[in-house]
Amino acid sequence: MSGNTFGHLFAVTNFGESHGPAIGCVIDGCPPGLELSEADLQPDLDRRRPGTSRYVTQRNEPDAVEILSGVYEGQTTGTPIALLIRNTDQRSKDYGNLLDTFRPGHADYTYAHKYGVRDPRGGGRSSARLTAPMVAAGAVAKKWLRLSHGVQFKGCLTQIGELPIAFESWDHVNNNPFFAPLADVSPLEAYMDALRKSGDSCGARLRVVASGMPVGLGQPLYDKLDADIAYAMMGINAVKGVEIGAGFSSITQRGSVHGDALTPAGFASNHAGGVLGGISTGQDLEVSLAIKPTSSIITPRPSIDRSGQATEVVTRGRHDPCVGIRATPIAEAMLALVVMEHALQHRAQCADVQPMLPRIPASPV
Questions:
Q1: Which of 198-202's residues contact partners 24+ apart within 8 Å by CB, and which partners?
Q2: 354 Cβ partners below 8 Å, 6+ apart?
Q3: pLDDT tens, 110-151?
Q4: What is the radius of gyration, based on Cα positions, of the chain?
Q5: Going from the N-terminus, what domains does the chain have, and what CATH number goes with each?
Q6: Which is nearest to 327 in space by CA: 202, 226, 228, 167?
């Protein structure tokens, strides 16, 4: 199976299956000399891991990461960094009835047709379990970018199902299981409790931001920074839509509004989402994601079996009623991998370029 490596200068190859002995990744191209330990990676993995509240899958995985190579005496050596996360709480018997049937909305049907064989246990390679290595690799990129460029990443939930979530403060995001920027999440709790009891699932909308961005990251045309962001986000399980900046709202904006005015004090707005012509402006990167409803639900649904005959599918086991709840650290990680890749590209090509004009502030003072 090809298509398991993201990036070129900072290349991350993801491996493993949901119910195999372990999952992980190999990072090739990390600059040497970065102080790195498991303690740098574990906090983001803990934010993503299952079993942390009653609103997510109750699969109880510690997601403890092990660094197997590429680090000597606490520093990266420039050689490949192998990261391993062992699976410890598989219940493969929950998927015994899926070997000969296909879950609507899941990758069962397409994997079976493409490869002629598939691992039905937890979805195999198509499981959201495989986002854990993304988060681990993203934590490496986050640390390097923070120390070398001062870039910071954060994200939050902005809608769950039919419920839009008003933004109050980033300070609330890590204080509730929804990554919601709200002080009071009781309406979200009531919504999710009702959803779980109904046996159904829902989608979500996320916002992810990179602040402290340098100017000039990205390439013209096909390797634009925003094009690579969209590509990366669509590589996350269950993502069905990506917006940069104003996104689809720009359809109804006038050019006099959408174009972010430049002033000596800074940009007057950020409808562009921090990217112009595929190159970073130094403003915050603003990205929004649409996450589809979870495909594995206990509500009976019509499907077919391997012989093409009509059947009914009920998915037992432990599943997220809304996969978007745990997706915030994943989106942060993938945005960090994109920025890392472009930072290394820029360093290789344009490190000695002198700007034609002083950098203006990212926003008005």
A1: 198/299, 199/297, 199/298, 199/299, 200/293, 200/297, 200/299, 200/321, 201/293, 201/294, 201/295, 201/296, 201/297, 201/319, 201/320, 201/321, 201/322, 202/160, 202/161, 202/162, 202/293, 202/321, 202/322
A2: none
A3: 888 888 887 877 677 888 889 999 999 999 999 999 999 999
A4: 21
A5: 5-350 (3.60.150.10)
A6: 202
